[in-house]
Amino acid sequence: MSIKKPEEDLIFDIVNYTIFGVFTLLCILPFYYLFINTISDNDLVKRGLIKLIPRGFHLNNYVQVFKLRGLGQAALISVSRTVGGTGLTVLASAFVGYLVTKNDLWGRKFWYRYIIITMYFSAGLVPWYMNMVLLRLTNNFLAYILPGMVAPFSIILVKTYIESIPPSLEESASIDGAGVLTIFAKIMLPLTKPILATIAIFAAVGHWNSFMDTLFLMTDEKLFSLQFVLWRYLNEANYLASIMRSGTTVAVDAAQVLTPRTIQMTISMVVVFPILCTYPFMQRFFIKGIMVGAIKG
Q: 3-state SS of the chain: helix, strand, coil percent to 5?
């Protein structure tokens, strides 16, 4: 038997859905505009004639961009650092967040505050660079992973989430003879999946979008990340187009067919697309993790 909603609730739902629908369209529109300009006629794009409907459909822009020198190796580096860095960040944040909830941990409050204070104070770029040099992390793939393993904000989320789990679960496991590592691996990790998925999203986006560490620490082209390579080509879009107009033959094939505007838009779409594909699969964990991790008790 269906229950009819009061008129006030119906009006509220209509207004609510309308407002959020408009916000959703405003969020989607920039990506849609970017995409249709990458698959439309380059001359029309250059003159700004592509608005809401693609014209002169083709995929040649993507074909040419993927021919850019060093793109395949850079993509491998970015995927490797994203997967490896995200996994280690999630594992380290989960374990440290679990440890700081233990009252019998020596200096628990000190270590927790010591970690959190790094969120508010930083030594600056020059000391950071000198530290990385002394640790021999220049031209080293580990420079992409090790510095971000312990994330203070992620530790806060995990700690708050674990404190919302009934202590009786851990107590019963301890009575049965389970140690700290066993409890963490077999009880805490499965129960904290929502907040760990949230941390994974934060870490993956950070690793995927990062290119400043490549700029400062890497001179070996084999260690260049995808974002750094695309950023460099993005800044050289006008130069690539001028090569095309002059008819000079250079190793960069994209300059023969692309305009500066289409180069910039296509490269931007290549960078954004993987993250756009990741969010829908992680969204339900993301929302649940944030809500539960933000409320204590």
A: 75, 0, 25
C-alpha separations of 30 from 35, 111, 264, 280 in Å: 9, 44, 14, 18
CB 233 within 8 A of CB 225: no
Percentage of residues of the chain with pLDDT beyond 90:
11
Instruction: State how far the Cα of 18 lies from the Cα of 145, in Å rounded to an integer.
Output: 43
Regarding the domain delimited by 60-294, which CATH topology (the fold level of the hierarchy) does it fall under?
Answer: MetI-like fold (1.10.3720)
pLDDT above 80 for 111: yes
**Residue 255 has what pLDDT?**
37
**Is this structure's pTM higher than 0.90?**
no
Question: Domain locations in the chain?
Answer: 1-58, 60-294
Quote the pLDDT of residue 288: 57
Rg over alpha carbons for the chain, rounded to the nearest Å, is 25
Cα gap 23→287, rounded to integer Å: 18
pLDDT score of 84: 92
Work out whether the CA dihedral 70, 59, 38, 19 comes out positive or negative. Answer: negative
- Closest by Cα among 243, 248, 246, 241 to 263: 241
**Dihedral (C-alpha) 73, 74, 80, 85: value to the nearest 10 degrees?**
160
DSSP class of residue 166?
-
Mean pLDDT of 27-52: 84
**CB atoms < 10 A from the CB of 150, how many?**
16
